[in-house]
């Protein structure tokens, strides 16, 4: 069993309580049963998360919309699980969705997992989205340093020279300077 799936099922078991529906959704191997549960009215959040995650790991694109919603959730554990499943889903819309979430200033508090997902996907949308997000985080007293740091580290991992100007600007920010030095060292040229 995938370690992330094991962690998710343990967490959701607690949320579900003694629900027989939980055991049914964990045990089934039928993707249609999972997809039906994903769209059935009145399903609790734990059930939607469980089936979306399982469908995502199986490469079933019916999970895409639910996983994107979970990627932008206020609960970091749900975001982590959604990012894990989206990275394995293989849906070409994933990078665009993650880039949109990462660059949405109204939801910047929840941008950490979309930023990390973009780096993992290494999609063409990743570098422009991370440059945009990091540039916005370089304002004085910006409260989203974790997002900025993820962008710096991600741009270093992606190794695209287009990131050089924003990474150079990040050198002036004490919380980002060390990571920016490492990221700049990874860029070609």
From TrEMBL:
Keywords carried by this UniProt record: Lyase
InterPro entries in the cross-refs: ARM-like (IPR011989), ARM-type_fold (IPR016024), PBS_lyase_HEAT (IPR004155)
Family matches, as Gene3D superfamilies: Leucine-rich Repeat Variant (1.25.10.10)
Molecular function terms from GO: lyase activity
Matches recorded under SMART domains: EZ_HEAT
Annotated Pfam families: HEAT_PBS (PF03130)
NCBIfam families tied to this protein: PRK08937.3-1
Stated name of the protein: Adenylosuccinate lyase
Keyword rRNA-binding attributed: no
